[in-house]
C-alpha cells in the first residue's frame, strides 16, 4: 500500500494530469502527497555562477507551481510541498530514496521518438532507476 506518494511538478499539462491521478490514488490509499519542484539549474547555468536574482526568480516560479498543485488537493488529504535545485532526474530519485517514498507519480513530457532517443527523458530515467513503483501519466 502506498503511504507516501511523490509527485514531481513543473507546471506543464502533463504535470497537472499527474497531480489529478495522484490525488485519486491518495484518496483510495489514504496516502500523503509530497509535491516536489526541481529548479533545473543545468539549463540556467551558462556560467559557473548564477546570480541571486536568477535563483530568486526560479524559486518564485517554483513556489507558484507548488501552490497551484497544493490548491488542487481536496481537504482531508495530507500534503506537503518541497523545492530543490539541481538535475531533475537525480534530485527526484534522491528525494524519493531519502524520504522513503512508496510511489512516484509524474507526467510525461511527450517527447517525440527522435528527441527522446537523443535527449533522454526525465520520466524514462526515473522509471529505469527508481527503487519504488513509478506511474507515468500521459
TrEMBL record:
Residue ranges that the Swiss-Prot or TrEMBL entry lists as coiled coil: none
InterPro entries referenced in this protein's UniProt entry, alphabetically: Rossmann-like_a/b/a_fold, Universal_stress_UspA, UspA
Pfam families assigned: Usp
Signal peptide: none
UspA domain segment(s): 1-138
Family designation: Belongs to the universal stress protein A family.
Protein name: Universal stress protein
Provenance organism: Selenomonas caprae
Amino acid at each position: 500500500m502506498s503511504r507516501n506518494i511523490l509527485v514531481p511538478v513543473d507546471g506543464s499539462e502533463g504535470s497537472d494530469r499527474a497531480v489529478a491521478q495522484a490525488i485519486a490514488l491518495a484518496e483510495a490509499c489514504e496516502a500523503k502527497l509530497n509535491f516536489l519542484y526541481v529548479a533545473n539549474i543545468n539549463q540556467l547555468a551558462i556560467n559557473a555562477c548564477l546570480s541571486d536574482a536568477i535563483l530568486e526568480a526560479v524559486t518564485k516560479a517554483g513556489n507558484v507551481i507548488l501552490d497551484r498543485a497544493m490548491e488542487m488537493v481536496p481537504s482531508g488529504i495530507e500534503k506537503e510541498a518541497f523545492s530543490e535545485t539541481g538535475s531533475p532526474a537525480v534530485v527526484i530519485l534522491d528525494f524519493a530514496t531519502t524520504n522513503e517514498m512508496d510511489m512516484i507519480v509524474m507526467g510525461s513530457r511527450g517527447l517525440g521518438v527522435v528527441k527522446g532517443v537523443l535527449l533522454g527523458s526525465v520520466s524514462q530515467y526515473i522509471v529505469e532507476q527508481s527503487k519504488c513503483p513509478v506511474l507515468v501519466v500521459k
